[in-house]
Amino acid sequence: MSSSLPQIVPAPVSVRAGAGPAVLLADRLAIAAPAELWVEARWFRNVLEAGTGWRIDIVRPGEPAAVVLELAARGQLTASPGPAHTVGAGPGGYRVVVGDGRVSVSGEEQAGVFYGLQTLRQLLPDATLRRAPVGRGAGQGVARPVASPVPVDPVVVEDGPRFGWRGVHLDVCRHFFPKSFLLELVDLAAFHKLNSFHLHLTDDQGWRFPVEAHPRLVEVGAWRRRSQAGHKRENRFDDQPHGGYYTKDDLREVVAYAAERHVNVVPEVEMPGHTVAAIAAYPELGNTGAQLEVGDGWGIYSEVVNLDQGTVGFFGDVIDEVCDVFPGPYLHIGGDECPTSEWENSPRARALMESEGFTSARQLQGWFTARIAPYVARHGRRLVGWDEILEGGAPPGAVVMSWRGVKGGVEAASLGHDVVMVPEEWLYFDWAYSDDPAEPLAIRGATPVERVYRFDPVPPGIPDDRVHHVLGAQCQLWTEYVKTPAHAEYLYFPRLCAFAETVWSPPPPADGGRHFAEFEPRLARHLRRLGALGVNYRPLEGPTPGQARTWRSTSGAANEPSLESGA
Questions:
Q1: Which of 27, 304, 330, 525 falls 20 to 30 Å from 4 in CA-CA distance?
Q2: All residues at 6 or more sequence positions from 292 whose CB lies less than 8 Å from its CB, including other chains
């Protein structure tokens, strides 16, 4: 991308200079939009009014307007990313034309127009991204509108997504995050043209979704009496109670807020492992009947749910209520890191193995998942699970998230399953940015921005006739070591910016991958936008003193040994 052209993140398919003088935007501008684009027009009016202090009107098509929104029939837009670019692609193609005295944003479906407007925001001054205008007020601290008019240089941007699943994940179980942060994360994901928000709602250390049929899930399961302090290997605890849960209306609000920004919320309810919080609330779900406490440490617990039909029905109740709140097409049931030791020692589980002709306790997980699948299907949802669900036999139509490297994704695609690539070595953002001890405490090190940027969601080994099964990719943030929204933002950004380009922009060239040297200056420019948005991002040169875990001396050396790479 030429340095004289707008520095857009993620990189569009095509950016070229437009014709004519700059378009001037000012107070009392109008946005022309058909009724089908009223939601997108209203959203853009709201964010632009907030940052500029302008008064903006939405008018009907054909009326005088500085910004014109239009729907284009699929295939009408001339930008063509090419066959390789459209693997797994969903809706979202758009064109932005600045020239002839107006800004035109046309898109294939409403999502395309929304993404075009996000690009337009990057064409405007950074100050317009703020939540209030920064002009100096004449007394009482009241800010004046942004100086008018604001020129927008002539440009033509033609664009569309490479993948249909462009996701960000947040674990709210290890540490509970307020609803306000969920809404903020949706905004930041949408700003980078991501369209999936994976919300990890239940785990050993906390249950965050209220189930009317089983109220003790939050009365008991939402709270733990303490948490681990420091790294897991230190075996220290803080003795500070922790927890919380969202009301159903909280979550409906998140869903509606995300939908207006063309982000689908994917709920995750873990089963049959990672269920200590559920067993603590209802001991009859366990294999021993023992009264457990909600998990207070990190790692994998051996306690898992039993395989009685009543337990299957219990989780069926949960699925019914989850689907009532989350209307999207996917429901994630977890399925990862499920020890089988309790089943191996359970007479009931051994009897089930014998009656089913199983030779391995691992097959029992497949048995459980197969009985959960109809509850998911009757709500018209597709079951999603981590790649371990392949080991016991994934149900037909299940979507597999490949986190233990890319091998599970290759296997799943070869078996005909759709795949979302989420390999931890590239896309687990709870890993440190570097091995520098100044980095905040992290589970592992290190995943720098450049490593994320060089990731390609289509790994070698997938046959050409199976590549279409790669729906896209997703970045993950597990929160054992992340207690605050500010720390979460630090770990997401700027790695999420790099990730967004891997799932949106054209595929890497055949000469060895994406060129970080081209991306880095665009990212440096983009960080100023994040600053205007109020994001606690990590500078490219390293953490600030306020972000760092250790104090760096004037010699540049930190006062602690380097971060260990193992967990």
A1: 27
A2: 276, 279, 280, 283, 286, 303
Helices (H), 338-448: 341-344, 347-356, 362-377, 407-414, 424-427
CA distance 277 to 190: 32
Q: Is 489 inside any structural domain? A: yes
CA–CA separation, 29 and 300 (whole Å)? 56
Q: 3-state DSSP call for residue 68?
A: strand
Model confidence pLDDT, tens digit, residues 428-472: 999 999 999 999 999 998 999 999 999 999 998 898 999 999 999
**Count of residues for the chain?**
567
CATH of residue 173's domain is: 3.20.20.80
Could you tell me the end-to-end alpha-carbon distance of the chain, in angstroms, rounded to an integer? Answer: 40
Residue 40: burial class (beta carbons within 10 Å; 0-12, 13-18, 19+) = buried
What is the model's pLDDT at position 2?
60
CB crowding 188-203: b at 16 or more within 10 Å, else e: bbbbbbbbbbbbbbbb
pLDDT for the residue 503: 98
Query: Residue 482 pLDDT more than 80?
Result: yes
185 with 64, same domain: the answer is: no
Give per-residue pLDDT as tens, 199-214.
999 999 999 999 999 9
Q: Which residues pair with 27 in a beta bridge?
A: none
Helix/strand number for the chain, H first, E second: 16, 23
Residue with tokens 């200590």: 276
Residues 248 and 362 in one domain: yes
Q: Taking Cα atoms as reference points, which of 537, 539, 424, 513 lies closest to residue 192?
A: 537
Residue 562 has pLDDT above 60, yes or no: no
Q: For 291-305, write each residue's pLDDT tens digit.
A: 999 999 999 999 999
Domain that holds residue 44: 14-128+149-159
| Residues classed as catalytic | 203, 274, 337
Contact 346, 364 (CB under 8 A): no
Same-domain pairing of 291 and 404: yes
Q: What is the pLDDT of residue 84?
A: 39
- Long-range contact set of residues 445-448: C-beta below 8 Å, sequence gap at least 24: 445/563, 445/564, 445/565, 446/563, 446/565, 447/495
